[in-house]
Design goal:
- With about 140 residues, this protein is an alpha+beta fold.
- The protein is built from four helices and five strands.
- About 35% of the residues lie in helices and about 30% in strands.
- The N and C termini lie far apart (about 75 Å).
- It is elongated, with a radius of gyration of 30 Å.
Length: about 140
């Protein structure tokens, strides 16, 4: 996820920034699986003001809004630093957050192995007879 400065939220600028990040990921032999900047993402109010340099200005500005972009991609762990460097050096990006999503392992066939070990009772009557025999033995 990254937040773009509100000064660069026209459609062409957003498309160019997203394309730049996608090219960076693909250059490191990664794959972008999804990009979302529509509702509920897109232009939103920030939780707190962010002071950042605006393009060509000598002093910092306080930004209270930003344009949120959520991007899912797959990339080898050793290549993340190059993509992170590209994001850091992209001036219109105010903040970013890279996280990992761990895949849950699928347990196929585990149930089949345990089914062989389970005994299935034939009749409920047989179980009741066994219970009666146990009660009679205890009484003796």
């Amino acid at each position: 996820m990254f937040i773009i400065s509100p000064l660069h939220t026209d459609d062409d600028s957003i498309a160019a920034l997203i394309n730049r990040i996608q090219q960076s990921i693909e250059a490191e032999s990664g794959e972008v699986t999804s990009v979302n900047y529509n509702a509920p993402w897109g232009r939103r109010r920030l939780a707190y003001p962010i002071r950042a340099y605006a393009g060509g200005e000598a002093s910092r500005r306080n930004f209270t809004e930003g344009f949120y972009v959520l991007m899912h991609f797959t990339l080898h762990a050793s290549k993340v630093t190059q993509v992170e460097r590209t994001i850091k050096l992209t001036d219109p990006i105010l903040r970013y957050l890279l996280t990992t999503i761990e895949q849950k392992a699928a347990f196929t066939g585990a149930l089949d192995e345990t089914q062989d070990d389970v005994e299935v009772a034939g009749d409920i009557d047989d179980i009741e007879e066994d219970d009666e025999e146990m009660v009679e033995e205890d009484a003796d």
